[in-house]
Amino acid sequence: xxxxxxxxxxxxxxxxxxxxxxxxAFTSDNSFVADSPKVVNLxxxxxxxxxxxxxxxxxxxxxxxxxxxxxxxxxxxxxxxLMQEIVGHKIHHNVMMHGTRPEPTPLxxxxxxxxxxxxxxxxxxIGSIARSAAAIGINSYLLPAHGPHPYSRRxxxxxxxxxxxxxxxxxxxxxxxxxxxxxxxxxxYAAEVTHDSTPLASVKVVDKWVLLMGHEGSGLSDDILxxxxxxxxxxxxxxxxxxxxxxxxxxxxxxxxxxxxHN
Length: 263
Prior knowledge:
This protein is an alpha/beta fold.
């Protein structure tokens, strides 16, 4: 038996979290908010702790089998119109979830193949790279602690919830982290265009590697490149400067994965 709480007042304190959009609103208690049935349903099949769901009766009726499996303290029922009033804009779905971000994976418990980001500023890119990594089978994701959080609402939505399939680790200092990874036996490949970079078509990929992607605009700094073992570039038509970082990461992750399997 599910205990539903019917909502008529959008200003209930329990609903405050659903009014929030900025990352810093969630960090104090390690919360996240996810929306849309595809994302929420995928998260319901994981071990992630769910604090509440805000949804229409139609959603609960359709997916009761998923919700019964979880011990969720609060199941709020509202009309779609009321949900739109709560979030303050038009929504194209009928469910939102308030959960607790999973604990980050320690650095030494990540897999042998890691996708690592430097100063990525776009939450959308963080989500799209996570989705590609999950699809390609690269299950460890290394991100800066001071950047957008992988469990931010937009990153979750763009990843279609697949961020939950990855081991994530948030690092504080990139130089220390690269040093530790090298000590742990990883070869660090930097994705960047330099005069002596290796074309992606001819790179030799070892079994234990990290692929490091730089900032969307400025790329990787020289002092970071100096720390890496090899710089790799996707060959491009003359006159075209670069790919979007999400696209570049997808192409390179796929190639790296294939090389390891077929070397």
